Structures are given as structure tokens and as C-alpha cells.
Amino acid sequence: TLCFQAFLQMCNLPVRVVCRANAEYMSPSGKLPFIHVGNQVVSELGPIVQFVKAKGHSLSDGLDEVQKAEMKAYMELVNNMLLTAELYLQWCDDVTAEEITHPRYGSPYPWPLNRILSYQKQWEVKRKMKAIGWAGKTLEQVLEDVDQCCQALSQRLGTQPYFFNKQPTELDALVFGHLFTILTTQLITDELSEKVKNYSNLTAFCRRIEQQYFLGHDKDSSATVAARSAKRSLLR
Amino acid sequence: MAAPMELRCWGGGWGLPSLHPECLTVMAYAKFSGAPLTVNTINNSWRALKGDVPVLISEDIVISQPAKILNFLRKQKYNADYELSAKQGADTLAYIALLEEKLLPALLHAFWVETENYCSVTKPWFASRIPFPLSLYLPGKVYREALNRILLTRGGPPLYSFAEVEAQIYRDAKECLNLLSKRLGTSRFFFGHTPTTLDAFVLGFLAPIYKVSFPRVQLQEHVKQLPNLCRFCDDILTCYFGLTVSGHAPAGQDTADANLQKLTQLVNKESNLIEKMDDNLRKSPQHPPRKLTTLKLAAGGEQNSPLNLLSP
Q1: Which pLDDT value is given to residue B302?
Q2: In angstroms, rounded to a whole number, what is the distance separating the alpha carbons of residues A27 and A42?
Q3: Does residue B45 sit within a domain?
Q4: Where do the Mitochondrial outer membrane transport complex Sam37/metaxin N-terminal domain residues begin and end (chain B) (predicted)?
Q5: CATH classification of the domain holding B231
Q6: β-strands A34-37, B5-9: how paired?
Q7: B308 inside domain
Q8: What is the pLDDT of residue A64?
């Protein structure tokens, strides 16, 4: 969710965050989050970026063709590795699934619906993992993949403020969303966030974006409240 | 020095050493890094047909996924990436993710799910290389796995019919090919003058689409419109695999070659004609014998006399 908020903040578009239990069903693609603008509903980062671009706001206009290709490739890397690893950790690691994910996913519903729905979701995620070949991976291998991905992102970022030097792009929003979530969400073990913390330029990157786009806007309190209440802040 | 290494993979055809994208990737990497691999194509054996190809066997170690195989080769000091900077290494990972997310579904679809392609090309090709009765079961199994993978990763709302999913994956694949073409530009390889892991992966995914003749060829047509990608594939296949490039030159190159051929033929005809005229000239007693060895197109005395002979 944060990557979308970050993206919209970077485009200087005001956004109001609302939590709803039936959000998955309202979304046109069944995936969260989605934005509701006037009488249009758009979900998923790709379509949202295009929608915003059609309205005249774009973060990647300053990039040349090769840079745009690179940006798309890195976005796929994040989706391929980080997102899949997050899903794996939430649903395929038995301890985490039992103690954290099932209660959280089923919380809006009464018993036994909460158990049924969360087991159904777990079954779906496991099927997908099997199809892409992640079912045979152990937790150590998944963590190693996350480490490799973070290393690649860290090397690409280097000492620049954003991935494509001076201006933030969709890639920055996406990376921020994932890394911030990993760093601040409480899980059984801290191994995942430790992997990210190994790369100081990535944590500095997250802190910088949080400061600039979330904590700097006092009036947009809904965004900061949502960010703060669900997760701890990176700044202490 | 290193233990002998054997690679087991599917066989090839249509000018490719192997039809399986991951096998092709590993074979290309081995060529780039100079790793001495013995390649054994699985044709008539029951072993390893349960599907995991490519498989690298070195002494007692058996490794089965391309990323792991490449890691193993690097540890054995066969490294094609040692000249890459850290950022280029990161780019490699990103582009491989792009290939797997955007190009692989369309590749799987073209080979295994598209009915006409599957029935007329893929199934007969695989079935002819597997012993009965596995030939009845295995192609179907791979088809189901491919379909599953496509539906689970790309299907789902807002795409409600399979036709919409197909349209989306081909759109994504074409976009991916365009991005690769832009990234490659006019260089010989993706990172300068020497081929690396990324070149191996791109070849593995691209060459089967480019070379295999399917009845339904929309992706192949798209590849042919990107001449730098075609040149990239052909280059590697001829230089590193020593295979002759048969047939699939990009459209523009074809007409240029044909024109060049016609021009050469015309020039040869002209030179033959002039030689004949000169022969006649030599037989006549007017001038001392002169040997015309090269075609002289510049205006000169030699040209005028044969023409004078012919004129009434």
C-alpha cells in the first residue's frame, strides 16, 4: 500500500486512505490497494501509473529509452523476488502463517469464516508458489534470494538520492513501499528485516523518502496516521 | 583440472543446439566462460525424463536449476561476468527477472498451449524423442504445467476469459522484446564486447521463438522486426556454437542480399561479354594479342575498338 501512497505523494497528488473490510471485493482486479477517483476505480501499480500519466502527471518523462527499460526491469525484479518472498514468508512459513497471518487476514470476519477464508487464501498462494517453482525452496533459500535482490538494489542505488539520480520515479515508490514494510512489520523473527538493514544506503533511502513525503506533510495527517499506526517509524 | 562435467538436456532442431530455453542458457554460458561440458541430449532414456532439465552432473554432484548450475560453474572458476561492474551485475538480475515475468509466459504459450503449434510441432517433436508409452503422457504433463503457470501468474480478474489472458501475455512479451532491443542498441552484446550471463539468458529465451517454425508465429514476426535482436542470436549461434544460420534472416537483409546477388550476376554477364569481344579482337590481325584479365569499366581505347568492330 505504501508504494502507492508514496507514488501519489511524489506526483503531488493529495490522497485519502480508507480501510475497508470488503476492499478486495470492491477492487476491479481483486488486488489491493485500489484508487477511487470520481467515478473511476483503478487497481494495481501499472494501471494506476498509466491512469495518473493520462491525467498529466508522470514521474518518468525525463528518462531516455534505455533508462525506461532499466526501470521496468528493476520493477519486475522487485515484483519477482521481494513480493514473492513476502508472500512466501506470510503464507508458506508455517510458524508465521499460524501466529500472524491467519489472525490478521481473518480478523474482520466471525468464526468460522475467518479460518475458512484464510486457509483458502493460503491454499491459493501455495498453488502459485508451486507453479513458479518456489514450493521446493526452504526459508534460508528465500532469505538468500531477498539478500541477492537487496544487494542488486543497493548496487544500483549507490550513493544517489534516487534510483535515477535527482528525480524520484515509480521504481523509487515501489522499492520504498516494499522495503519500508519489511523493515517495520513485526514478524516472528527479524531475519528478513536484518537482510535489508545490511545495506545502509537502502535504509537511508527509506528514511529519506519517509521524511520527505510522509512526515513532512502535517496536513495530510491521514497518510501519516495510517503509516504510523500500522507500523513503527524508521526515525527514532 | 576440474572434474569432468556432463550436462543433460533436450535435443535441438531448427538450427539450435537445444529447444529448451534453460538448457540453451546453460549451454551458451558454458561456451562463453569456456567451461568444458559434455552435452548429452536425452533422447531415448527413461532417466531424467521426469522433467528436470537441464541437469549438471559432476562426479557425485547433481544440480538442476539454471541459476544453481551457473553458480556452480562460477565456483569452478568458469566466470563469464568477471569484467562486469557491481551495477552491471545488478542490471543482469533485473533483466533476467524481466525475461521471466514478461517473456516466459508467451514462450510457454507458443510452445505448449497454442493448440495448432502444440499439435503440429511441439508434440510430434517431443514424442518422437521419447520412448513409448512416456510419449503419450509426458507432453501432456508439460502442457498442463505450462497452462497452470500461465493461469496462476497471469490469469484472474480483470481478465476473465482465456483469450484476454493470451492477448495480455503477448502484449507483455512484445513490450519486453522492444525493451531488450532498445537496451541492446547497436552493441554486439548487452555489456560491451564480451558475452555474459545476461546474453546467455536472453539467447535461451529468444532463440527458440526466433528459430522454431510454428504455424502461429505472431511473436516470431515481432522478433524479425527487431533486426538487432536477430543479429544478436545469429551472431552467437554461428560464433559460439558453429552452427550455420539457415533461413531466418530478417526481412530487410533478405532483399538486400537478393539485390546484391542480382548485381553480381549482371556484372559477371557484362564481364563475360567483354571477354568475348576481346577474344574476337585478338583473333583479328589488327592489334597485338592482349589479355583481358580484369573487368575494366573505365572508358578507354580498349573499349572503343570492340565496339567499332560491331558497328556496321
Answers
A1: 44
A2: 8
A3: yes
A4: 23-142
A5: 1.20.1050.130
A6: unpaired
A7: no
A8: 81
| Cβ neighbours of B86 in A, within 8 Å | 155
Q: How far apart are CA A76 and CA B101, in angstroms?
A: 7
Q: Is the pLDDT of residue B215 over 80?
A: yes
pLDDT at A19 over 80: no
Strands B5-9 and B37-41: parallel
pLDDT in tens, B176-186: 999 999 898 88
H-assigned helices in chain A: 2-10, 23-26, 45-54, 65-77, 84-87, 94-96, 102-106, 113-132, 139-157, 170-184, 191-197, 200-209, 221-230
Inter-chain contact A66–B185, Cβ cutoff 8 Å?
Answer: yes
Closest residue in chain B to residue A128, using alpha carbons only: B152
Cβ contact B149–A132 (<8 Å): yes
Does pTM top 0.80 for this prediction? Answer: no
- The distance from CA A222 to its chain's CA centroid, rounded to whole angstroms, is 18
pLDDT classification of B139: cutoffs 50, 70, 90: confident
- CA B128-B151-A93 angle, to 5 degrees, is 105
Q: Is residue B146 a contact partner of residue B80, using CB atoms and an 8 Å limit?
A: no
In which domain, by residue range, is B234 found?
5-244
Task: Locate A230 and state its grid cell.
Answer: 500500522
Phi (first) and psi of residue A19, to 5 degrees: -100, 130
Residue B275 forms part of a structural domain: no
Return the CATH number of the domain spanning residue range A61-213: 1.20.1050.10
A198 interface with B at CB cutoff 8 Å: no
SS3 assignment, position A165 = strand
- Which of B39-52 are b and which e, b meaning 16 or more Cβ less than 10 Å from the residue's Cβ? bebbeeeeebbeee
With an 8 Å Cβ cutoff, are A69 and B86 in contact?
no
Residues 62-81, chain A: which have Cβ within 8 Å of B?
A: 65-66, 68-70, 72-74, 76-77, 79-81
Residue B202 is predicted with a pLDDT of: 92
Q: Which amino acid is at A171?
A: L
Least confident of A86-95, B78-87, B237-246: B237-246
Domain residue spans of chain A: 61-213
Our CA-based measurement puts residue A92 at a distance from the nearest CA of chain B, in whole angstroms, of 16
* B160 inside domain: yes
- Amino acid, single-letter form, for residue B97: A
User: Which residues, in sequence order, are CB contacts of B107 under 8 Å at separation 6+?
Assistant: B21, B173, B205, B208, B209, B219
